[in-house]
Specification:
The complex is a heterodimer.
Chain A: H1 2-24, E1 27-33, H2 36-52, E2 55-61, H3 63-75, E3 83-87, H4 91-96, H5 104-109, H6 119-126, E4 138-141, E5 145-150, H7 151-154, H8 157-167, H9 177-187, E6 190-192, E7 195-201, H10 210-222, H11 242-258, H12 268-276, E8 280-286, H13 290-295, E9 304-308, E10 318-319, E11 323-327, H14 334-344, H15 347-356, H16 363-366, H17 378-385, E12 388-389, H18 397-412, H19 419-436
Helix pairs in contact in A: 2-15, 9-11, 10-11, 10-18, 18-19
Chain B: H1 5-12, H2 15-22, H3 26-55, H4 75-81, H5 84-116, H6 122-130, H7 137-147, H8 154-163, H9 179-204, H10 208-216, H11 221-249, H12 253-258, H13 270-279, H14 284-314
Helix pairs in contact in B: 3-14, 5-9, 5-11, 9-11, 11-14, 13-14
The chains are: A alpha/beta, B mainly alpha.
Chain lengths: 440, 315
């Protein structure tokens, strides 16, 4: 009897879901960058397809052209993407230019609370204006710049002894950016197992956002501020403060004494390649690469360690990465897209997202007692997410990014002028952008 | 007897139209045939040019369609011509143009001279030599990026094999002094065969009878080279210089793949800079003025050069 009843219920459920599917099945396109987590999302989304009956398509664009391609798509009101996992800095433009659907009512109606997510990710990925409860995205992928190091090299007795003799302290995870530079210098040009290795792979790329995402990890910790905390868009003396100049000089010195020769235009991919191929002792990179490092046969399985961006003279911060998922306002399938967000926000889906290599920003996942020990890099991820700062998220973010890329790259890599010149020039460029925007 | 297709078409043409066509002059019919091409040329060449000139006097930004467009007169032109960064870019372009053309003409002509002599395997060598120019510039850029890698690149190993030292001691694309030469070497590798082919055509156009007459006059090979080969191949050499000059003035893909314009602005050529201004910074009015300046420069130089080329051909 019980079996018969279950069969009837199951048949009814299948029929009902089949009918609803037949009536509402949509082809949804999700746009994101082409990288490892995107493959994990394809895997994860199969559950959504199965449950909802909707068909998911994906448009993944390499990072170096991701912003160009997707911002053009949004600015032209294109209907390619129903769902967009856009970079954190796009949120201002997405909101003010009407590209993203405001999600407050949807969240309220479906019991999705932003209190359930890591606060930094809510501020960074979802809110516009910042620190106001206006949500245009659900935190989708928490990410932050951190460091990976060759634990197996750091543990070698002969290297430990030599380092101690040279620097008077143990070779280990650096407590400050100054110590990090010492370690990079120590490994620079060193012969390890018959191969010449180098100190640290850092971001120097000029074409998209690379060097900005790298240098800010030094600038923030030396006292750089984007603006006067008491007066928005007041830049002079904050962007180019004495501390900021010192931070920029530090980054150039790190590049000069500790980066591999020829690393003049490196970003995520080049850093990963240099590290995996055993060229460098440390690499700066976003946390998304850590699952791949652990799985790598050359540098994984305990050979690598992870640490958050070390402190500087005025504090300890790290550059925020990561993205929120938004519904594109030009989509004609907004209901189905919202359905996807509702599904994605579920704790069990978020838990599976972490298992597959996606960095969930849901507190229920990251605050679970087992989380910190679930992966060798999990604790570092948590520590790093607690110290994040982000680049401008203004609608004119692209206009603000380009001069920073130019000024910083030209000083750090090409040695043009001084750090003070570079940051003074940056202030002039940014003031011009804000004047054009009518904010000054 | 079967009617030809033309006759059939004529038979099927409605009387009204047939009468009108019969009344047209040859000149009118010619205009009817040429009109679509003229219309297309106006639409895709002339109109955009005029529109660009118009935009160059405004502050228009294509990514801000709602912002009021102001007429700024010659301000964009003044800013460009007084911008030291743009002059640096012009210098980088001139450096690239001068050295690529010089080296490619020298090597290309030398190769053509060798290939022009009949020897076993001549055709095979010609095919092997022209192989690089069959590749996509983007592929060549990527390929040379790997060759120039200080740690794993073949280029550094070859250089240090002859000079000694560690291959990682220098970085072709990461060094502000070497990067301009890195792009020149890659471009030369790719496009010298093109120059060689043009020179080869020039050399093969010289009648053997002239050399035979010179032999009869007991002219040395050296004298034959300077008084017959070079003067008669000169129009072809000049043509090669013109083609390579125009091509390299707009060089973009190879350099972007290789250095991205860096380190710093060292290898930022005008076309790369213009693309950044127009499609990264979205300063449409400013970049239109920039494009007009470049257009006038190239057009002016090319016109002078073509006149000189025609004079040489007429000799």
């Amino acid at each position: 009897m019980k079996t018969k009843m279950m069969t009837t219920v199951a048949a009814g459920a299948i029929l009902a879901s089949g009918l609803s599917t037949a009536a509402q099945a949509e082809d949804l396109t999700l746009c994101w960058a082409a990288w490892d987590p995107a493959n994990a999302l394809i895997e994860l989304s199969k559950d959504f397809e199965e449950q909802s009956g909707h068909n998911m398509s994906f448009e993944f664009v390499p990072w170096t052209s991701f912003a160009d391609r997707m911002l053009n798509e949004l600015n032209s009101g294109g209907q390619l993407c129903d769902l967009m996992i856009g970079d954190s800095q796009w949120i201002g433009g997405g909101a003010e230019n009407g590209h993203y659907v405001k999600l407050n009512d949807f969240f309220d109606a479906n019991g999705i609370s932003m209190d359930d997510f890591i606060p930094a990710t809510v501020t960074g990925y979802s809110e516009w204006p910042k620190n106001t409860p206006n949500y245009y995205a659900l935190p989708a992928f928490g990410d932050v710049v951190g460091w990976t190091y060759r634990k197996d090299w750091f543990d070698r007795p002969e290297l430990k002894a030599e380092f101690k003799e040279t620097y008077g302290r143990d070779l280990g995870v650096p407590a400050s950016l100054g110590e990090l530079k010492d370690i990079a210098e120590f490994f620079q040009g060193r012969d390890i197992d018959g191969t010449t290795v180098y100190g640290a792979a850092i971001y120097t790329e000029r074409g998209s956002e690379g060097i900005t995402m790298g240098v800010t990890n030094a600038l923030y910790n030396y006292g750089f501020l984007y603006e006067n905390p008491d007066q928005p868009y007041d830049l002079d003396g904050f962007v180019n403060s004495a501390g900021a100049v010192e931070g920029l000089e530090f980054y150039k010195e790190l590049y000069d004494v500790g980066a591999p020769p020829g690393s003049s235009n490196w970003y995520m991919g080049e850093n990963i390649d240099a590290y995996r191929s055993g060229q460098v002792a440390m690499q700066m990179n976003f946390a998304f690469i850590w699952p791949g490092v652990e799985a790598d046969e050359n540098v994984g399985s305990g050979k690598s360690g992870y640490f958050p961006n070390p402190a500087g003279p005025t504090g300890q911060f790290a550059q925020l990465g990561g993205q929120g998922i938004s519904v594109v306002s030009y989509s004609e399938k907004q209901d189905a897209a919202l359905e996807y967000i509702q599904w994605f926000a579920q704790p069990e889906v978020q838990a599976k997202w972490w298992e597959l290599g996606g960095y969930s920003a849901l507190k229920a996942v990251v605050e679970d007692p087992s989380f910190a020990t679930s992966q060798p890099y999990a604790q570092t991820f948590l520590d790093s997410m607690a110290i994040v700062k982000d680049f401008w998220a203004e609608p004119a973010y692209a206009d603000l990014l380009i001069p920073m890329q130019e000024r910083i790259h030209n000083y750090v890599v090409a040695g043009d002028g001084t750090a003070q010149d570079a940051l003074d020039g940056l202030v002039r460029d940014w003031v011009e952008v804000f004047e054009d925007e009518g904010k000054l | 007897m079967t009617a030809s297709p033309i006759t059939k078409a004529a038979q099927h043409t409605p009387d009204g139209i047939a009468k009108k066509i019969r009344g047209l002059s040859d000149r009118s019919i010619a205009w009817i045939f040429v009109a679509p091409t003229i219309f297309l040329l106006l639409a895709v060449n002339i109109f955009p040019l005029i529109w660009t000139i118009r935009l160059s006097f405004t502050n228009y930004r294509v990514n801000r369609p709602n912002k009021e467009v102001e007429w700024v007169g010659l301000r964009n032109y003044e800013r460009i011509l007084n911008d030291p960064d743009i002059w640096h870019t012009m210098q980088a372009t001139a450096h690239f143009l001068f050295w690529t053309i010089l080296i490619q003409v020298l090597i290309g002509f030398a190769l053509a001279y060798l290939i022009n002599n009949k020897f076993k395997g001549n055709d095979l060598w010609t095919t092997i030599i022209v192989f690089p120019m069959m590749l996509s510039p983007a592929v060549v850029g990527n390929f040379w990026t790997f060759l120039y890698q200080p740690q794993i690149g073949l280029f550094n190993y070859v250089v240090t094999f002859f000079t000694g030292g560690d291959p990682a001691d220098f970085s072709m694309i990461g060094d502000v002094y070497l990067a301009p030469w890195a792009i020149i070497i890659a471009d030369t590798w790719m496009w010298t065969p093109f120059v060689m082919l043009i020179c080869l055509a020039g050399l093969r156009s010289i009648p053997d009878s002239i050399y035979e007459a010179a032999e009869c006059d007991r002219a040395s090979k050296w004298r034959q080279f300077w008084t017959i080969t070079i003067p008669m191949a000169l129009p072809f050499l000049m043509l090669a210089v013109l083609f390579r000059g125009i091509e390299n003035f707009k060089m973009f893909d190879l350099v972007v793949q290789l250095t991205g314009g860096g380190p710093g602005n060292t290898t930022t050529l005008t076309s790369i800079d213009l693309k950044r201004e127009a499609f990264e910074k979205w300063r449409t009015g400013y970049s239109s003025a920039y494009a007009v300046i470049l257009f006038v420069t190239v057009f002016g130089l090319a016109s002078i050069y073509v006149k000189a080329l025609n004079k040489v051909k007429e000799r």
